Amino acid sequence: MFPLAEKDKSIARLLFSTGTCPRCIFRFCGVDFHAPYRLPYKDLLRELENFLKTEDDDLSLEAAKPPLKKIRLQDEETQIDDQSQNGGEMIAIVKDENVIPEKPYLNACNICLGILQEFCEKKFIKKVCQKVESSGYEFTNLVFSVSFPPQLSVREHAAWLLVKQEMGKQGLSLGRDDIVQLKEAYKWISHPLFSEELGVPVDGKSLFEVSVIFAHPETDEDCHFLSTSCPDCFKPAKNKQSVFTRMAVVKALDKIKDDDFRKKFPCPPNLPKAFCSAVEIQCAHGAVFVAGRYNKYSRNLPQTPWIIDGERKLESSVEELISSQLLTVFKAESFNFSSSGREDVDVRTLGNGRPFAVELVNPRRVQFTSQDIKELQQKINISSDKIQVRDLQLVTREAIGHMKEGEEEKTKTYSALVWTDKAIQKKDIEFLDDLKDLQINQKTPLRVLHRRPLAIRVRIIHTMETHYIDEHHFRLHLKTQAGTYIKEFVHGDFGRTKPNIGSLMNGTADILELDVESVDVDWPPALDN
Amino acid sequence: MAAEAGGASAAAPSLVDRYFTRWYKADVKGKPCEDHCILQHSNRICVITLAESHPLLQNGKTIKSINYQISANCSRLQNKVSGKFKRGAQFLTELAPLCRISCSDGEEYTVSSCVRGRLMEVNENILDKPSILQEKPSTEGYIAVVLPKFEESKSITEGLLTQKEYEEIVVKRVNNRPETS
Questions:
Q1: So what CATH class is A408-519?
Q2: Shortest alpha-carbon distance between residue A257 and chain B (Å)
Q3: pLDDT tens across A140-161, in order?
Q4: Which of A229, A233, A221, A50 lies closest to A149 in space, CA to CA?
């Protein structure tokens, strides 16, 4: 059923004569249900022409500028009349007037520049879907984002002023909200076409995004007058990009007064010389997160790649050994590795391991069963004896928050091999076992002072347990607050950590070996490994 | 970390040996034997200390006081550093004085920076207990911590002596000394 009624005729007629396409006419007449927009363009055109045709309309329609004669192919007679009445004004007439040509949109709409003409129809959507399918992404739904050239807002504004004026003559008002937004109508039409073609629903929350960017060669031309009327809306262009961004144009249109606008830009908007073109069709998948816990068994492995002046100082790293496998399997572009704190190159991580999370950026594969993940975990564990992972699982973005919390708030336990300069007996170290919640003050260790601010950190050593080895060695187990520098607590860092094991024992101590025994975070959830 | 080892003496490399390179400046400001030892960390940070041959570290010297007020307007104790880039630090040249040390025998010694860079901190622990300076001159008894400019990290040691060169100088001094009975 044709959605326009008698009351819409004058507006429809006015817009049609200026070169507006049927769907834009619907929008300005407030047609706010989807069905009419989804009919094929050809049919809409035909129905619109029928709707607008009355006996004496033929003549007045012909008189109106500008000529859009190509699409009015049904009326042979009137066309012959056209010629005599409008002299040379006409664009060349197609001779076989009885046939509606294959390409009904011979002129770009003066408001949407083709967006609601060919660019929302099956043929174009199919083309986009072909690109999506060939890109190799795995997805169960999609979100479609589209970007239009800024001057569409200008043309829309011009059309609105025109229609507002016309309705004013009838004693009616027309607010911006009474008009259906171009983007909305576009989505009403395109979403079902995408779903049909790709076999998945369109969902605003989907992680898989298909984006199309439209551009038009006359953008700067059409928007130029705004820079003189509202210069403060436009910042100087970065690189070679146009200064007329969508946001800036919308802002300027809000500011500019109606009469000022009408002076500088044709109302109704003129016929464009070209259609829009889709300059970019892209797809991308939002990041997925994989978490787990890792053990580190090497005393020669850095957390992150150790490269100075382009030269790699130590082979591999914790993050590469874990993430490179994930990168491959998820077919992702890149990764970001984070963990609940970290250990030095020469420190092992024992016990349950340290929580970590890997963000896989723009992954092409996202469907994994828990069995798949288990196998992936085994694969990582077989690939290296320097690290091992457990509890590998897919998690959400809140994983990163858990990492931070673990790093900053949770206690850790350690085992250190301590050397003393003075000869010691068992009884000389027993007192350390009795110290509970010992407060220490640590100035930023010299070994990190080049990249950290100078500060004093107050930390708590919750408990200690000693195991005598010989006159100059003992093993020290300790449970400490997050962020405690253990090595510095043992050797004192030039007396800048006070108290320290050396000062507590009235001598000099040094640390020969350090292991992380536990990171007291119960996240990610333990799995039946 | 150091490899496992037994024994009291430095069988295993000490903290300083593991992370620092020792550089020396002899007869600083022309004063005989007032030798300084600069410990340079692999991250370019320098710890200014007294070398073993410095008069203050010889037997019989008692330190009366240590003063970081090096001029009417400048006290090293007022050095304030903020942020990762250590803004606000007092900038030191090679000859900049760090502190003045007075002894019970009336002698006064000035300790100089020996390297260019931003002053991170001076050792306040030795103010309370000056004897630490003499007991552990290479660790707890350090004088100051200086952060050279990134571009100058290598060049600052150009004017300094290696450990070997310093030891040769010390040997020469002993040989040149007139015999005492």
A1: alpha beta
A2: 50
A3: 999 999 999 998 999 999 999 9
A4: A221
